[in-house]
Design goal:
Distance between the termini: 12 Å
Radius of gyration: 16 Å
Bound molecules: guanosine-5'-monophosphate
CATH architecture: 3-Layer(aba) Sandwich
Shape: globular
Number of strands: 10
Helix content: 25-40%
Number of helices: 6
Strand order of the largest sheet: 4-3-7-8-9-10
Amino acid sequence: MEALKERILNDGYVLTEEILKVDSFLNHQIDSKLMYQMGEEFKRRFANKPVTKIVTIEASGIAIAALAALSFNVPVVFAKKTQSRNLDKDTYTYPVYSFTKKQTYDIHISKKYLNEDDDVLIIDDFLANGQAAAGLIELVKQARANLTGVGIVIEKGFQKGGEELRNNGIIVESLAIVDRMTGGEIRFL
Ligand code: 5GP
C-alpha cells in the first residue's frame, strides 16, 4: 500500500536492525485517517471471504483492528495480556513470547466473544517472528472458529513469522513488507 510505505519512509525510524518505530502514526500517536484507509485496504484484500469477527491483541493492534472493523461491519475482540479480576474466568488462553518486551505472558479471550460460528480475521500492527499471530491462531482453534486469514500493517520480511504462517497454509496479507533495515535505511520487498 503506497500511502503506508511513504509514511513509513517519512516518519518511521530504525531503532535497531530489527525494530522499526512508527510512533507518530501507529503505535503512540494515531493517524485515524490512515488507519481507516488501511482498514478499507484489508476489506479489499479479503473481499468475498467470510469475516464475522476481527481478533487482535492489546494494545497496539486495537486501533487498526477497530478502524478495519468499520469497513467489515463486524465487532473486534482483543486478546488481553493480563487475566484481570473482572475478566470472565472462562477464557481461551495461550502463552505468547513478546518480541519487543522479551518476556512470555498468557493471552486471554473470554469464551463469550468467540465461538465455532465465527469466521475470524486476525489483524495486528507488526509481524516479526509470528509469536503473537500464532497465539491468536491458537485461541481461534480453541474456540473451534474458522480462521479466514491474517492482516498485518507492517511485516518484517527478514524475520520468519510470515514465511512460517504461509507455509502452514494461512492467508497472510501485509500492507507493507520491509525487506531490510540495515544502516538505518528502510527497504521494501
Ligand atoms: P512477533 O510476535 O511476530 O514476533 O511480533 C509481533 C508483535 O511484536 C507485534 O504485536 C508488535 O506489537 C511487536 N513488534 C514486533 N516487531 C516490531 C517492530 O519492529 N516495531 C514495533 N513497534 N513493534 C514490533
